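Standup notes
- HV: blocked on the assembly model, inputs below
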Amino acid sequence: MSWRDIAVVYRKELTDSLRDHRTVVAMIVVPILLMPVLTIFVGVFSARIIGKAMLQVPSVMVVGAENSPQILAALRALPDVRIVPAAPDFAQEIVDKKVRAAVEIPSDFDAMIARGETAKVRIDIYQGELNSGFSADKLQKFFRDFRDRAVLERLASRHLPENLAQPIVVEEHNVAPPEKVSGVVLGGLVPYFVIILALTGTMHPAMDLTVGEKERGTIETILASPISRATLVVGKFLMVLTASLSTAILAIASMGLTLAGAGKMVAGVPQINDMGLQLNVSLRAIFWVFVMIVPLAVLFSAALLAISLFAKSFKEAQSYLSPLTVVVIAPAIVAVLPGVELNAALSLIPIVNTSLVSKEIVSGVYHWNYIALIFGSSCLYAAVALWVAVRLCQREDVLFRT
Amino acid sequence: MIVAENLGKEFRDKKRGVIHAVRKLSFRCAPGSVYGLLGANGAGKTTALRMLATILSPTSGSASIAGFDIRRQPEKVRQSLGFLSTATALYGRLTALEIVEYFGCLYGLDRPTARRRALALFDRLGATAFLDRRCETLSTGMKQRVSIARMLVHDPPVMIFDEPTSGLDVIAARTIVAFIRECRDNGKTVVFSTHVMSEAEKLCDTIGIIHDGELLAEGSLQDLRVRFGHADLEEIFMRVVCA
């Protein structure tokens, strides 16, 4: 095997692939555009919808308003709720989204409160509907405040201290830095997208450079040249790896820029601010995520090259490779699941390990022992896959399968 | 020089069992001569030539090309030969010049030398007008000229043609026939396979008739005519094959 010949094959494959629009789309266009498009049309759009729903003044019916003029007056005084006249079919009105919620006040409400008893108020909503949910939140807050005031009045009337009904106060305090809070949310998503794109960016070049040669009849031309088959496979493998890595680099860069841009766009959304999220990933994290993606990209490139080499036709190769997307998505999605933590055993499972370690890196956690273990094991799997590809290229029954 | 001795190739097929594609094929071809393997489709011509080109490895026997053993020195064998068949297609997205340059580099030439030789070959083959065009845009005849330049770029002493005119129109086929003749006149060792009798009659110094993987008859056209008592090669072929 000669490095000079490998370079000759690689240069030719690169030129050839860059002239193939399907490769260019998968390798350059998709990773650059996917994140901005997803973020803008899904992320920011949904954030805006949520923000708009939160700011919207919902129509609410008060059923049995005559039972408590003071509640009705207090509800009318709320700036973010619009009280509309009650109708007998208020439930249907909610289902039809004409009103967002209804409050049912029992007949002896005021009397029960006055007697110091417990009165039951029912809030009718359309469960799962965004605006109805926000209306319920506002009404719940109103009645919580009302209850607290009633408790204080009852304590005062009996000359009891205010803290009698509140023996303890529980306060939740976040000690994690903002990037780690962001990491919990983004940490799973970033590697998920990068891993999927590193795979999809590899698919077309892997097929084009192997089974594509069989279909176009150029395989015999190249096999009649003096270079060894190992040289040929390594040259092609490097081109597929280039496609995979450039897809991953562009995806990471695009994702970083998109998150920074999206962070600015949603900065005013109260829910995002409340969560303490920073929609950006540090350069150090980007660098290390990329480092961890490299052996995985090598594994993808070699495995897809071997599988495509085995296929008789493009169609057959596609039928082998398409299910691979699911095979890769399933372990990649593990990192998105809450509660799954990296350990030594998971460090040896391909894709799951890269996905989890990338999640940690984005969160600012660097377990160097696991990073070394994952890098080493991924390199080993990649070397085995490349060896299989070279062996397959030396088998006549694979090269000339009919 | 090509020397094949008892060359054999077996394939294993799940349905048909062991298939003997080539059995004990022996022949010699000296520099400056053309050896023609004449046979029907499926006779074993392509398998035999692929073994000589080291694309397939033989299951028995041996052969040498320009003094190099096809089993022990496959890379040197390929370095010494040019191989052309209807299956040796061109890379559609590369230009004619890029392809010939690429193969020049694969044959060990440095890039400037490969380019210089490619340009000289295009000039000689009358292909200068389309050397910067992508091969996917070329006509069949143009592609044939590029293929010829591709197989000549390293100036090999041995040339192997596997049914080189199959599927070509008369003009493109004549270009190939003229080229094979030119190779022979330039002292190259040429083996080519065909099932077109007229081509064999025109070109071959020695004809080997192959059927079911076996070489059934061999000799010059004149020898075969005398041996089988018939002037027409097609008639000779049928007598050999049907015997």
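- HV (later): unblocked. The radius of gyration of chain B is 18 Å. Strands of chain B lie at 2-13, 17-29, 33-38, 60-65, 68-69, 81-85, 158-162, 189-194, 206-211, 214-219.
- Next: hand off to the docking folks.
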